[in-house]
From TrEMBL:
One of its GO terms (molecular function) is amino-acid racemase activity. PANTHER family: ASPARTATE-GLUTAMATE RACEMASE FAMILY, GLUTAMATE RACEMASE. Its EC number is 5.1.1.-. This is Amino acid racemase. The lineage of its organism: Bacteria, Pseudomonadati, Pseudomonadota, Gammaproteobacteria, Alteromonadales. It comes from Salinimonas marina.
Amino acid sequence: MQKTQQRVGIIGGMSWQSTALYYSLLNQQIHDRLGGLHSADIIVHSVDFHQISELQHNQQWDELSRMMIDSARLLENAGATAIAIATNTMHKVAPDVAAAISIPLLNIISATAQHCRADQLQHVGLLGTRFTMHDPFYRDGLQQHGLQVTTPDTAAQHTIHQIIYEELCQGTVTDAAQQQFLAIMKDMTEHGVQGFILGCTEIGLLINSHITRHTLVDTTQVHTRHIVRHLLGQH
């Protein structure tokens, strides 16, 4: 029987809610493309997010890098032909992971930047965890593709970060949180932002095109489509 897909290894669990969405989207997209009983040829290594979160907030990125490398090598040894880290924040250590494996790392930042360029977005607002908004790794990755990037002010970053970790990562979605996000986004449009990168895989659980007219770049959707292209050998 002819093999129809490459195999991709997914590092997930950060949070499990967004990894479940990755799993659903990948399988749905493969089914839509191939039909019949086809599903995605993926291997998922789901880590304990409690430990990851503690290390993030303690700024122990060297240890986090080691853990992501271990996961990537585990998946490579299991037969994956590419690796995807199913979270934006942990792409802070993506260069370390890419250097430690012999197969491609399907980078969410690069995929997002390419999507923005194809959509003719030039000035984007970046929403995500405090690490994603404040630390330079994500902003620099977008700017390398010629994008102008604006992040919320410090107080708004704190609000967004708190909602992500204390609500969305625990499966809680509230109208109050939604309104806080929308108010922050409205303020950012006054600074010339053309569209918003939902730079945390949980934000799409809260903000979508049904509740706002702002142009949204849902990184979970973008990343899963990028992964599917690899699965189908279209990379």
